[in-house]
Protein 1
Amino acid sequence: MSTMQSPPPVAASYPRSEEQIAARVKALESLLIEKGMLTTEVVDRLAEVYENEVGPHLGAKVVAKAWTDQAFHDRLLADASAACQELGIGGVQGEDMIAVADTDTVHHVIVCTLCSCYPWPVLGLPPNWYKYPAYRSRMVRDPRAVLRDDFGLELPDSVEIRVWDSSSELRYWVVPQRPAGTDGMSEEQLAGLVTRDSLIGVGLPDIP
Amino acid sequence: MNGVHDLGGTDGLGPVTREQDEPVFHADWEKAVFAMFPATFVKGYFNLDQFRHGMERMHPVEYLSSRYYEHWLHSLESHVVEAGAVDRDELDRRTQHYLDHPDEPLPGTRDSDLVGFLETVMAQGASARREASGTARFSAGDRVRVGDDHPHGHTRRARYIRGKTGVIDRVHDAFIYPDSAGNGHGEDPQFVYTVRFATTDLWGPDSGDPRSCVYFDVWEPYLQSA
């Protein structure tokens, strides 16, 4: 067999083991600590912020307010970052957010085909599936099938699907429709119905 | 660049795989990589567009088969090394050291000012919106075509919209231009537009869904009148 039977090998073999990655990261971390740029306390604190403080419960809170306060709803659609700031919600990857609202005839969904842009202040850090190739490759090409086959969300053919590919620094996210049968529910109760997936557009809010 | 990262419309990558009760971070090393981003970003070693370009320059095999935060690690490594902040040989030696001594603790340096500073950086963010010079060339409702250029460096002109025609949905302010900033040539702010593309115009009359469309943000230099 010729030695050229296979293409030239890439620089390393993939996937790397957890041990290899952990050692590489620890090495870089130790060098950055020695140079005064990082501490283990910084690592723990920033992780804690996105594990416990910034997440989709914040987007849910914003949506519940929009469902119960028409003036806030209008401000949210006009300037999502300013409206969120009224509730003390904002920060990196949410400097210029745009909220898009579902209707009976239009369903919105977000994706980032070029990397994994996502509105951190209202949704937290993205799940792996949002960042991995399958979702990014197919959502713009066949959104109706992806929603149906991969997320179990079957939309009537009459509903137009609008896919927002987050290619600039504008960060899109979805204001889903308020479910029927929620009259009289408090803002807090309504927020409990708003799922992360409904803010991305790959799901709907829970039904009480 | 025509890289593998430019995934829109690629076939054959399988179904979306979802993890039940997925944690925010899957391992401690992911937390460390996440924190390294603001820690080195504030030093000016790279801007956000250069950070993205660093990931795009991974080998396609590695890009498609590695964990997400390995992408960050790859870009961070290349930028701190290129900036001269970290020596590649020293990093390799240190990696071998931790492979041989995985339980050795990290330096216990404390710096409460740094914690507060980086937490504030994350909480405040930094908009890429910039003062516009001149006026926007296009208006909402204009039909536009995305120029069919294939630049070698960083760009946000995804392949699947090149040469395609759509309608301006919204006109935004000027923002940092990734095709300049991502290639180390300054911010060069340009107007951003949201363009609406019918999926039948992107994928053809037989393959596109007539009841769905894609909204894609472009910078003014990408556009031509149609």
Note: Chain A touches chain B through 89 residues (CB under 8 Å).
Protein 2
Amino acid sequence: MKKVAVNALTKSVAAIIAALIAISAATVGVLLLYGGFQATSETIKLGVLTPLSAPADFTSGKLILSVAEIFRDYVNEKGGIKSRRVELVVEDQTLDPAKAVASLQRMVTEKRIVGLIGPWESLIALPVARATNDYPTIMFVTYSWADAITADKPKYVFRVGVYNSLFAAHLLEYVKWRGYKHVAVLTEQSPYGLGFRDAMISLARERLPELQISSVEAPQDKVDFSAELLKIKDLKPQLLVVAFNLPAIAQINKQFYELGLDKQMEIIQGHDWPAWDGGKTWWETLGEKGVGGRYPTYYSPNMKISPACEDFRRLYKEKTGAEPVHWIFWYWDSLRILQKAIEDTGSTDPNVLASYIEKIDMEGCTGRIRFVNDPTPGSPMWHQWMEMTQFVMEFTELNQPVEKTKQIYPPP
Amino acid sequence: MSTPVNPTLFFEFFIVGLILASIYSLMATGLTLIYSILRVVNFAYGEIYMLGGYAFYFMTTLFGAPPILGLPVAALTGFAASLLLERLLVKDIYNRNIDRPTEYVVLGTFAVTIFLQNFAILLFGPFLKTTPPLVEGKLSLPTFSISYDRIIAMIVALTTLASLYLFIKKTWAGRAWLAVAQNREGAKIIGINVERVGMVSFGVAGALGALAGGVLTPVYGVYPTVGTTPLVIGFVIIVIGGLGSIKGSLIGGVIVGLVQSLISGLAAPVYGEMALWIILLLCLLVRPSGLFGERIREV
């Protein structure tokens, strides 16, 4: 009888232990599956989804990848983030939105990335940003200009950079200061180009109702823009704004001078491409004609770069041979934001990180980092960093490096 | 009420269109030759053009050679690269051991395109590179200017097309090429070394493409994907102008250049692009061999 009782007790204990093990295993499995708990791994994986091949803007993508590589090496040399080494997961964004979203899916579900930088063209950045609702990860955009990226109020996406309406609003200040009454915009047929043009037209109606804006569009993969430029010449504007990416924008500038349009109007770049390689492409393309050329940017040599970014500036110059342009600093800021968020929260959960980053207040490379979170439907000022100033810079001497250009506006 | 067309503007677009026509014809010459002689679609032609551009760029900037020396180097680079491509990829399609030879060449040369574009990004970097002009300055017309480099490109295009035409029509070698183009088996029977003709003509086509790349580098610059336009425009020209016709290549270039310039300028650039493809489609429907094309005779 006693033996039977002991056997029964042993079986009961065994059954209870087995049940406890099963419940624990199931709990861990469920938590891992639904991401409520990030399994500790040896590394922190950062996703870089950026253009690395044609026909996307691989020029910029290569620079973005450089920033990520410098960050990885720099942080790992200092012991990593929370003693965990940083590893990059790199994929080519291409110009196919479906492919880019599939890459995001793979990076989040298989590779378990904690954050993402890199989507460049708004054609790609916008669907990838929307897809983070389904594949949660913290994503930063800097130079993808579509208003909709933040106007959609995404939970995990933060913009450390500008958008079309903001850039157009800043450029209109320069137009007003110059006293122009008629401006032409030559834009590429893309979300960036057409969005920029539409923003400029709609903001001008409110702020400069006397300003006439003429618009000519062209496909971004053309090489010869003679017809478009002659058409603009016939419109007789005082200023031509060129909203194209490389390499077309360089060709447009060259052909502008070849056709003699510089005798009739000023030309200003739609963004700061001359600065991307320190001015090399600018001078190679235009030669002497480049003297007097102007471009808008968010960096002036008169600005002070935060000491926190001086190491990066040095490392970037060693790696690429050029001074980092402002949006390169913004990518560095984005990665530092993510690093600080992980260190301060001790978590890699995107929900925890997003809540923290919304309220972050830290020193950035070119200004204080604080996000504006305007919940008004349609407002792009959501998860948006606003503390930047647009400068218009001018090349004053032949072969002048970008860091020696003269600030024209705001007048120093 | 419609706005009357400004005659000055029309004249400007017409002149620009003619210059563009010659530039496009120059771009398309090599492609015309390959397709005319070998009936082979070479998707890597644009990248041969790109290699010619880079050869010209490095000769003139890295080695400081005068631009006039850069051009033959560009042509030689294109000749060598095309020869290699022909020997590795194209020659086997004539052995009839390959199932679906057309698809084989299309896919093979397309793969070479992707490889060369990305190799160029790796080796030369992604930024646009330009050289100093071949001839400094521009021709000032009453209302606008044309750079001398564009005029040189026009002269080179017309000279190249004329030389090629005379070569094909007046020399023994050229007539051998024509024979191979018209009837490969027949050419073999009468003693023409068709393999050598294929090899040399492929190389010469590459040389012409690379020469175009060199001549146009001072005009448009060079970058890893610069070859896309010559390839696409080249195919449009040879379809419109006519398969196997050098005269058709020139006329096709004129049509493409004028349509693009006039419609882009007078209407909108997007209509200029659309018009090209509408003309292409109409050509394929109404006259598939093109305006001056010859019908293929098969054994």
Note: Residues 32 and 38 of chain A are 7 Å apart (CA to CA).
